[in-house]
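Exercise: predict the fold of this chain.
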Amino acid sequence: MNIAHVSLAALVVAILVSCFTELNVGILALSLAWIVGVYVGGMPLNDVIGGFPVSLFLTLAGVTLLFSQAQLNRTLDRIAHRAVRLCRGNTGLIPVMFFILACALASMGPGNISTAALLGPMAMAVAGRAAIPAFLMIIMVGNGAQSGALSPFAPTGVIVNGLGDIQKVRIDASLMKPEEQHVVEDLVAAAYADGKKKLESQRFQDAGFLGNLMKSFMPGSS
């Protein structure tokens, strides 16, 4: 059987198990990778282990631990209450403030799902006290969290950046002269790296704009 088909089937199994059971899908995925790689694909165990993204795992684990501590010591509650006070009683600004807060929080590391779970209850409580439609408030929190998920520090951004690094490009030798192949491959890789660098620079500029926008809500700002 084609190992690609087996790998795809194993991925589908892992997704289905994560949807309908409480089994840790990470442990299941590691087990399936070992079974498929060693016993189906005939790969050496060291090659299978070498595919584990250690740096990505440490980044995600560290960010998750950091924001778990921020939740336990009620830092996030204080930030949310401070954000509401900055609205100075303007009910129309409260949903916008929670959108900005969700975007900023998600962009710093927790990602969209964790941010929505952290801010959702607080947003609902504030909406009830301020007579704001709960549907509007949860939409603002959800969309803010989704926009923050585009950050390179969010789990989705970390994964995309890790998978998006290109060290070498290989082009079919039949498409060009042999003496030109390596030059074209290096040019393509360099062009990709340059484009990615410019995109990241623009992304940081957008993050700076968001920070300045949040500062404009601070007391004493002109």
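Check your answer against the key: The chain has ten helices and no strands.
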